Amino acid sequence: MESIKDKVAIIGMGCTEFGERWDKGPYELIVESCFEAFEDAGIEAKDIQAAWFASLVSGSTGSRLSNALKLEYIPITRVENFCSGGLHALANACYAVASGTCDIALACGVEKLKDRATGFGIAGPEPIDSSKVMPETPPANMFAEIAIRYFHDRGWDIEEGKRILAQVSVKSHHNGTLSPKAHLRREITVEDVLKAPMLIHPLGLYDCCGISDGSAAAIVVRADMAKDFRDDYVLVKAFGFNSGAGQATLQDDYDFLHIQENIEAANFAYRQAGIKNPRKEIDLAQVHDCFSIHELMLYEELGFSPKGKAREDVEAGTFALDGDLPVNTDGGLKCFGHPLSASGLRMTYEIYKQLQDKAGPRQVKNCRLGLAHNAGGVIGSLNAAVSIYGRRD
Amino acid sequence: MVGIISCGCYIPFWRLSRAAIRDGLRGEKAIAGADEDSITMAVAAALDCLGGTDRQEVDGIFLATTTPPYKEKLGAGIVATAADLRRDIITADFTDSLRAGTIALRAAIDAVKSGSAKQVMVVAADCRLGAPGSSWELSCGDGAVAFLIGDSEDVIAEVTGSYSLSDEIMDIWRSEEDRFIRSAEGRFVSTEGYSRVCGEAVTGLMKRFSLGKEDFTKTLFGIPEPRAQVALARTLGFDTKTQLQDSLSLEVGETGAAYALMLLAAALEDAKKGDVFLLLSYGNGADAMALAITGSMENKRKISGIKGYLNSKEIIDDYTIYAKWRGLLPVERPPRPFGITAPPALWRERERNLRLYGVKCDVCGTIQYPPQSVCTKCHNRDQFEKIRLSDRKGNLFTYSIDHTTWALVMPIITAIVNFEGGGRIECLMSDVEAAKVKTDMPVAMSFRKMDFREGTTIYSWKCIPLRE
Fold first, then answer.
1. Are residues B94 and B180 part of one domain?
2. What are the CA-CA distances from residue A243 to residues A262, A341, A375 (Å)?
3. Which chain B residues have a beta carbon less than 8 Å from that of A117?
4. What part of B 325-344 touches A (C-beta under 8 Å)?
5. Residue A317 lies in a domain
6. Are residues B256 and B389 in the same domain?
7. Which of B16, B241, B252, B409 has the fewest Cβ atoms nearer than 10 Å?
8. Mean pLDDT across chain B, nearest whole number?
9. How many other CB atoms are there within 10 angstroms of residue A114's CB atom?
10. What is the CATH number of the domain that holds A57?
11. Is residue B229 less than 8 Å (CB to CB) from chain A?
């Protein structure tokens, strides 16, 4: 099996402001992110030879993208993997240019959630349970179940557990204040988190990411072509994808203390990138903090904290902007909100800007290697995606 | 000897304080939860009745109720499926009459005596609605009861005589358009209904079978009005202190087609061999029966009978909760649809949803729910045996309490349950206050109404705290 490492370069990216974009439709969001990417790469729409388009609720075929951008008669495929469609679209574009079947490819994710009550506005993904006897409850329930078991296992009462999770959200909200494109841009305190309304016990308002509109896009070429477009291109170091097979709910010994899909995806990506010690080698990470408990678990699952020691790292400030390994430097899903298929590309956008030293007040010093983790679904049926990007040199 | 070989009952966990309906009133009434109806309560009683007996032996099930979920569609079939009975059995609904329970009982005894079936289960359940503020709202309660009728040396009770009387009268009724019970003036119903007709039925029974009032240990008067029960006993010369079965009116209420049979279930709990009961049920006439107690209920029950259920309860003091559960207050539909109704899918997945079948892998032994084609552990294809999970206890591995998703009952509690003996299910939890949910608490499975949409009641299983 070959590695994708150093075969593909990102030469341009775009990202809309995320938020309640009442006056913009999905096409306009697509145009906003993609034209920023074209301009960033110094190319025009007609230079794109193939595209992958990710959307769950705002466009059901590839031609939605060509309609928006007026891409003329090129192959476009829609990619859908629930909350992780963005990274999967990017990976498809990268695999295509790596194979040599096209030279310049576009990946774009968009979601116009605010046109729909409750965001997703649909009865969940295509039925696994085709008779639909179980009500569709939001994915937050599964993460709440994990949090309950996680607290139980560690002997934390709800108050103590919530206090630890709160620190994750406080950190992300701080970073969000430094992100002009974020939806929620204000500082919060641990007390704010603890006093906030309970949504899905034990997760309160500030343990959950927002629901936003947004789009993000990336343009990729073969690495050997990249210097023709720019000097500070970013190299793809690895992709790791992993889908659960229902183990968490089918097997009564699955412990709900970890999500194996995340671990497998990370390990695959680390092998591709040749990373032995992620804590030391990764300089910053954007992870799928749909709920604060997920970010806490990911510290361990991605190998940033030793098993069972995420709490200590949270309390030591390891993942803060000025910590050893800054995580969700742009505020994460917590502050950007989560327009499902756009999120993976939004994470990539932040790492891309960081690796180019263009992250402004959020800039992480001397960063050379960044990781994005995106995930769609629920424990046992998660589609986990890990990507690693590095500087050219 | 043909008679009752097993008995089960069900009283919902929730009780509405009568003071919540009208200030100063004593007692409470049992109310079905928002996810319960006559079918789900019938299933609970049927399962209680089947505990300790072989389900494969049951040749028929008669469902008695005046509140079936469908005007056109068999209710007994849903109960039979959820109770995981055989398919080659007689299934019939006895409905439209408060006497439906005793009519079904008599029909079941006749069926077994005639040899057309070896064992027939009679299950009666009701969930009637009195108009807000009416005396019917105060007096009606919800509950279910089940009797297994069979021919055995080991019967608990034998019906030694039956006397039925038909009487055409507009006393208590609901037309096709009525949600609430209608009734004629109380004095009329009491005089020309309860008193005259019940009196005739009891004297008719005693005359036909040469019985005197001293022959009965207990009278069980299934008349929808407790005072009428006492009045009848007095008129007929019974000792109301020793011979009249408690009416359950302060704890449960009058449970429609299930009422007389629930009185019988309660009386059987204290019965001794040799006792003789006079069972009466009223409704456009009356059924009177003499029952000889021939055995004991001991060791024949899975849960804890009427007495046990009376103690297992949570009292609701807020009338608006009850009003929402019964649709007396408008409640928004969820912004997030609960799902589509696909009859082919409901049919295809009926064993999983209604019988609560999981599978056990023939190769590695892993129990899995829902049923799979490929084993989650050893990956062998289609080498499974079906395994019923509805009667397994479990523990609450983990849970969430969802305050955001629409539901008649907020919050929704989601659960991951690990079954004793293996297997795990992801389901909802019912009959519990959110503050009392604890990791690893013991639970049982309970058949519930999941949703009502497009004219279809969607049934499946939830977990509930173990009621013991």
1. yes
2. 9, 16, 9
3. 335-336
4. 334-342
5. yes
6. no
7. B241
8. 94
9. 18
10. 3.40.47.10
11. no
Residue A356 within a domain: yes
Catalytic (active-site) positions of A: 83, 338
> B331: pLDDT confidence band, cut at 50, 70 and 90?
confident
Number of neighbouring beta carbons within 10 Å of residue B94: 26
pLDDT the model gives residue A123:
46
- Strands in B11-79 per DSSP E: 14-17, 28-31, 60-65
- Residues in chain B with CB shorter than 8 Å from the CB of A131 are 342, 345-346, 348-349, 353
Same domain, B320 and B394: no
Q: A-B interface: how many C-beta pairs under 8 angstroms? A: 147
Condensed to tens digits (0 to 9), the pLDDT of residues A298-344 reads 999 999 999 999 999 999 999 999 999 999 999 999 999 999 999 99
Residues A307 and A353 in one domain: yes
Residues of chain B found within 8 Å of residue A132, distances taken between Cβ atoms: 338-342, 345, 458
Longest dimension (CA), chain A: 59
The interface predicted TM-score (ipTM) is 0.94
Q: Is the domain of B299 the same as that of B347?
A: no
Q: Are A175 and A329 in contact (CB under 8 A)?
A: yes
pLDDT for A128 equals 58
Among candidates B127, B122, B100, B99, which has minimal Cα distance to B41?
A: B127
Mutation test of the interface with chain B: which of A156, A247, A252, A378, choosing the one with the most B Cβ atoms within 10 A? A252
Q: Cβ distance A368 to A390 under 8 Å?
A: yes
A1 within domain boundaries: no
A29, A178: one domain? no
- Please tell me chain A's helix, strand, coil percentages from 3-state DSSP, rounded to the nearest 5: 40, 20, 40
| Residue B409 touches partner A, C-beta closer than 8 Å | no
Distance from the A245 Cα atom to the nearest Cα atom in chain B, whole angstroms: 8
Task: Compute the average pLDDT of residues A136-155.
Answer: 93
* Percent of chain A residues past pLDDT 90, beyond the cut: 91
Q: Which residue of B has its CA nearest to A143?
A: B400
Residues of B in contact with A247 (CB under 8 A): 376
Of the residues A126, A131, A162, A255, the best mutation for testing chain B's interface (the one with the most B CB atoms within 10 Å of its CB) is: A131
Residues B317 and B399 in one domain: no
Measured between alpha carbons, how far is A168 from A187 in angstroms, rounded to an integer?
A: 13
A79 and A196 within one domain: no
Is B198 a member of any domain?
yes
pTM for the complete prediction?
A: 0.95
| Residue of A127, A145, A252 lying closest to B414 (CB–CB) | A145
Q: Which of A123, A149, A199 sits opposite B398 (nearest CB)?
A: A149
* Residue in A117, A361, A61, A87 with CA at minimum distance from that of residue A220: A87
Q: What is the pLDDT of residues B230-255, one digit of tens each?
A: 999 999 999 999 999 999 999 999 99
Give the pair of three-digit tokens for residue B442.
């013991």
Total structural domains in chain A?
Answer: 2
Q: Does a structural domain hold residue B413?
A: yes
Residue A189 lies in a domain: yes
Kindly report the nearest CA distance between residue B341 and chain A, in angstroms: 7
B134 Rama sector, left if φ>0, alpha if ψ -120 to 50, beta otherwise: beta
* Distance from C-alpha of B333 to C-alpha of B452, rounded to nearest angstrom: 11
Confidence of residue A119 (pLDDT cuts 50, 70, 90): low
- Of B325, B355, B383, the last residue of a domain is B325
CATH of the domain at B186: 3.40.47.10
Q: Looking at residue B301, what is its pLDDT?
A: 53
In a domain, B335, yes or no: no
Nearest chain B Cα to A201, which residue? B401
Predicted pLDDT at A126: 46
* Contact criterion met (CB below 8 Å) for A65 and A51: yes
Q: Which domain holds residue B220?
A: 2-325
pLDDT tens digit sequence for B30-89:
999 999 999 999 999 999 999 878 999 999 999 999 999 999 999 999 999 999 999 999
Which residues constitute the domain of residue A28? 8-118+214-228
- Considering the domain architecture, whether residues A162 and A257 belong to the same structural domain is answered as yes
**pLDDT(A266) > 60:** yes
